[in-house]
Amino acid sequence: MTYCIGMRLDRGLVFMADTRTSAGVDNFAVSKKMFTWEVPGERAITIMTAGNLATTQSLISLLEERSVSEQERDPSILREPTMFQIARLVGATLREVIAGSSPTGQTSDDQFSASIILGGQIKGGKPTILMIYPEGNFIEITDDTPFFQIGETKYGKPILVRAYDRQMDFADAIKLLLVSFDSTVKSNLSVGLPFDLQVYETDSFATDRTKRINAEDEVYQEIATGWGDALRSAFELLPSYEL
Amino acid sequence: MTYCIGMRLDRGLVFMADTRTSAGVDNFAVSKKMFTWEVPGERAITIMTAGNLATTQSLISLLEERSVSEQERDPSILREPTMFQIARLVGATLREVIAGSSPTGQTSDDQFSASIILGGQIKGGKPTILMIYPEGNFIEITDDTPFFQIGETKYGKPILVRAYDRQMDFADAIKLLLVSFDSTVKSNLSVGLPFDLQVYETDSFATDRTKRINAEDEVYQEIATGWGDALRSAFELLPSYEL
């Protein structure tokens, strides 16, 4: 399993992905699930992946190769004029990879399946986030649904729904993502630290504000332990139910 | 979907079940999922069900019939000497019902599948809770795992894990269950009000402390709206993460 969130704020985008990959509890490893492409001053693209590792690695390799080799550079993630066109490209590539492994085709419950969060900004457009399904189709973020999750989405959703605020600054947004990730990590062994974090500020066209957050990270530890206490205090404040 | 929790405290047991049954979002209804049997002063038994409604209704009808008709009264949920034996009886009956509908047998992913929480006390024994799988086997609650959930278990789990305390009084335990149910209801349309609540006090051998909690219930409303505010205040208290 996996857990990734892409969130849109007024001031930009925030992405977080865990790094645990597993084929059973006795076979797990650390594997990056967040990938970035950049043309300085012109575009900044981030992709996060969930699902079959062979599928997602092939997808990223194909996108990479097509972005570096001159002959194959068209279609390229570095050339497409809009985020919408990049989503079409990534969706088509994803479908192609799954179709190559799976006799039954690219459906969500296929074992070779994968889901993608794509986010970023291209000059002339606004920052946006899209979620791409294994079938290659996709949806775009709206003000009503200001974040996308892929992987193990349920444990960490209630706090996102309650505490999200589009005017948040990045420091609070990262805190929110860490609380959501912490609830998930504590409930599902197949989601694990370290977490990859990226913050994208609108019109910066740069992908360099990133960090890998380890279990030893002091602020993360403070948030993880503090959240249990904070929840219990919040709980105390509510009225009891006399039967 | 469904959501039920059975929880053990030092002073007894608490059960809560939602009542929404659905075969798609355009076909839903209210249906009881909590059932009790009692021999005053001798035993109190509670069963909650999740899964295929035809399966769970057949199961309850068979258990009911075998507990009322003189000829078929053996084996009976009102006669078995221990909770363990009742769990075996319920498990066998469940397997029998599923096998009658399903050509492929009683596995968890079968469409006729169901899961059961069984709780209560028989004189001479302690109050306990067991979870019965579609295959008919079961597990018993322990101090390390002091509650069982069936149905849509993920959204409501983080708060249970953080705020449970075996020395809680019933009023606080009900509050905890309501918070857990509220998070689930807000995230999954197939879990819905009203909720059925039952509190069992150790050595009371009575099943009469029950209540159906509606959406209009004042304390529930206070908890549901108050929890959002409480969560946000708790969240404010944590340190922000500066990147």
Describe the protein's architecture and organization.
The structure is a homodimer of 243-residue chains. Chain A has 243 residues and is α+β, with helices and mostly antiparallel strands. In chain A, 32% of the residues lie in helices and 28% in strands. Chain A has five helices and twelve strands. The first copy, chain A, has helices at residues 53-68, 83-101, 157-163, 170-185, 218-237; strands at 3-9, 12-17, 20-22, 28-30, 34-39, 43-51, 114-122, 128-132, 138-140, 147-151, 195-201, 210-213. In chain A, a hairpin with a 5-residue loop joins β7 and β8 (128-132). The longest helix of chain A is centred in the last third of the chain and has 20 residues, at 218-237. Chain A binds chain B through residues 154-155, 157-159, 161-163, 169-172, 174-176, 178-179, 183, 186-187, 197, 199, 209, 211, 219-220, 222-223, 226-228, 230-235, 237-243, and chain B through 154-155, 157-159, 161-163, 169-172, 174-176, 178-179, 183, 186-187, 197, 199, 209, 211, 219-220, 222-223, 226-228, 230-235, 237-243.
| Major β-sheet profile of chain A | 5 strands, antiparallel
CATH architecture level-2 label of chain A: 4-Layer Sandwich
Mean pLDDT of chain A, as a whole number?
92
Residue share in β-strands of chain A: 25-35%
Quaternary state of the chains: homodimer
What is the structural class of chain A? alpha+beta
CATH topology of chain A: Glutamine Phosphoribosylpyrophosphate, subunit 1, domain 1
Number of strands of chain A: 12
Range of helix content of chain A: 25-40%
Q: Which overall shape of chain A is indicated by the principal axes computed on the Cα atoms?
A: globular
- SSE run of chain A: EEEEEEHHEEEEHHEEH
Q: Reading side by side through the largest sheet of chain A, how are the strands ordered?
A: 10-1-2-11-12
Q: How far do the termini of chain A sit from each other?
A: 41 Å
Count of the domains of chain A: 1
Number of helices of chain A: 5
| The CATH class of chain A | Alpha Beta
Query: Largest interface, with Cβ-Cβ < 8 Å?
Result: A-B, 44 and 44 residues
Radius of gyration of chain A: 19 Å
Going by CATH, the homologous superfamily of chain A would be Aminohydrolase, N-terminal nucleophile (Ntn) domain
